[in-house]
Amino acid sequence: MIARRGADRRLLRMALPKGSLYDGSVALLRDAGLDVTGLEDPGRQLTVRAGGVEYIIGKPTDIPVYVAYGGVDVAIAGKDVVLEADLEIAELVDLGFGACRFVVAEPQDAQHTVAELYRHLGVIRVATKYPRITDAHYASRGLQVELVKLSGNIELAPLIGLADQIVDITATGRTLAENRLRIVEDVLASTARFVANPVSLKTDSQRITALAAAMAAASEEKGPQQ
Amino acid sequence: MQPALPRGFRDVLLDEAREREWVVSTVTALFSAWGYDPVETPIVEEYRTLEAGVGAGLEETAFRLFDLDGSMLALRPEMTVPIARVVASRLAGTPGPHRIRYASQVFREHASLRGQARQFTQIGVELIGAPGPAADVEMVVLLLGALEAAGLRSFLVGMGTADVLRALLDRAGGPQQWRDAAVAAAQSRNLVELDRLATRQDLLPEVARALREIPRVSGGREALERCRELADPCGCAGSLESLAQTWEVLEELGVTASVQLDFGIMRSFAYYTGLQLEAYAPGLGLPLAGGGRYDGVLSVYGRPAPAAGFALGLERVMIALAEQDATPALEPLDAVLGGERTAEVFRAAARLRESGWRVRVASGVTGLALVREADSRGAAEALVADEGRIRRLDRAGEPATALGTPLPAAPRFTWAVRGGDVE
């Protein structure tokens, strides 16, 4: 698979993720000195042109696909979706914002501990939106799991008896607590990253490197944050 | 039943097949002019033979199968390792260097729903038994020539080296796990992870700095200088020497306009030992070609020898050509030749072909039907073989002028526009 976008490359194309990372992304671009006219309130618009950049506003999990196949040159994407996609992408800058962590959680009132279940049944049932990360995590622990991939509201899976544990991302842990789940283990931490298509990085290296430097400087100025 | 192909495989038909054939033949002709000779290897290899050469990466990419004896086989995922096998076995007694070319199908496994093909065509060369910058220069110049011969109007060749990172890691020391992580980060171009790994407490500050900075260095001669500045304090400047000498010669030859030094190139196959090459077309998100020096592979088969090579991905080259409006123009058909008597049609067709015509026979077809046939095939002329003469048909399908003797040159060489009207 390869994106076909013609040889006209005057505009650099950058994908931005809808949802929780969006506002932070626009703020960082502004701090990095980019023209963000039209980005603050794009409405239902999927593409915005400003200051020599064509912005593509996409679903977070699709952004690694856009980047790896060359549909866009660069993007802001959460480390979580980058890891889950497992595609060839150049990761240039840790932007520091959008921090969240992957955790393993289980019901607070679980009658049997998972260790006990595992001893008798030899397998744990795990629900997640991120099968690749989850699989790698349990494999590194040497645990046998049955993975159930769901598309959202992972907290429900233990409530309806579909899973013993879940692997999900959380920023504050509130949703988990509200659903009477407790965090038992950290899998990994994620922040927003500035990523690039490996070939764009070669053929358009000056613009992309300059952009990466500006964004690194802007994110450093802000310091670590939520 | 409804016939279907396995996912990721496809048929290549007619026009597309001819366009691909043209690119393959023109690039192959260039390789041949440089004295490279073809080698054909089986599409199936013993899995363990491939694994020894390709390394751990094979597990994810190999298209595996078992034969009736229970041997694990794999379809070749690339051509370098099979050719290294040939050189280490069949050609072991022949003096090198060996210059070998190929245009071959290769196979790679992919998970479903990624829209990836599982069969590709690679056009490439291997130069085995020749060490150092002279051989590396040959690879770069040949790659540039191949991209040009294929008809690409715009391209960029990136060249780097695996030596610098290797020297830095040797200098850095530390646990194997850290080293593996650094190699993996460099290969996946994960600069954030490299920065993190460079914060290891016991790392010398100059080594940490070089690890962070060098993968970001690219450009012309100044990139070389910059890399040297960073590597020198670590005692690693020597690892740059071969690349620097290669660059000198390329500059002397005046071919560096579309070549870029790039210390961020770290190709996925673990076997590269020196030069690393990639070629890009603007606007295409994946490299058109890749290669480099792999001095360690032959020793896996017990016959150590320096080696280098590269391959163009034909499918990607065709996409780049289409994007650059440079798809090869196909030679049109000169004529469809009809007539009542089959033997006469074949005899006339043979005469036309001798004069350089591309002719399709349509024995038994005449008149308007023949004109329509010629139109539908895009042929310049509708001709009939008629009592020892070859006559043109007019648009109405009536016999018009006869071709004179000697026969005129084929229309595709003389007509500015194909399908023009008969005089």
Mean pLDDT of chain B: 91
For CATH, the homologous superfamily of the largest domain in chain B is named as Bira Bifunctional Protein, Domain 2
Strand percentage of chain A, roughly? 25-35%
Helix-strand makeup class of chain A: alpha/beta
**Cα Rg of chain B:** 28 Å
Number of strands of chain A: 11
Would you kindly provide a written description of the structure presented here, covering whatever features stand out?
- The complex is a heterodimer of chains A (226) and B (423).
- Chain A has two domains: 120 residues, 3-Layer(aba) Sandwich (D-Maltodextrin-Binding Protein, domain 2); 89 residues, Periplasmic binding protein-like II (D-Maltodextrin-Binding Protein, domain 2).
- Chain A is built from nine helices and eleven strands.
- Chain A starts with 11 loop residues before the first strand and ends with a helix.
- The longest helix of chain A has 18 residues.
- Helix content of chain A is 33%, strand content 29%.
- In chain A, the strands form two sheets. A six-stranded mixed beta sheet of chain A has the order 2-3-1-4-11-5. In chain A, strands 8-7-9-6-10 form a five-stranded mixed beta sheet.
- Chain A is an alpha/beta fold.
- In chain B, the strands form three sheets. Chain B has a nine-stranded mixed beta sheet with strand order 1-5-6-12-11-10-7-9-8, sandwiched between helices. A five-stranded mixed beta sheet of chain B has the order 14-13-15-16-17.
- The two termini of chain B are 52 Å apart.
- Chain B has 16 helices and 17 strands.
- In chain B, a hairpin with an 8-residue loop joins strand 10 and strand 11.
- Chain B is 38% helix and 21% strand.
- Chain B is of the alpha+beta class and 423 residues long.
- Chain B has two domains: 310 residues, Bira Bifunctional Protein, Domain 2 (BirA Bifunctional Protein, domain 2); 80 residues, Rossmann fold, CATH 3.40.50.
- Chains A and B meet through strand 5 and helix 8 of A and helix 8 and helix 13 of B.
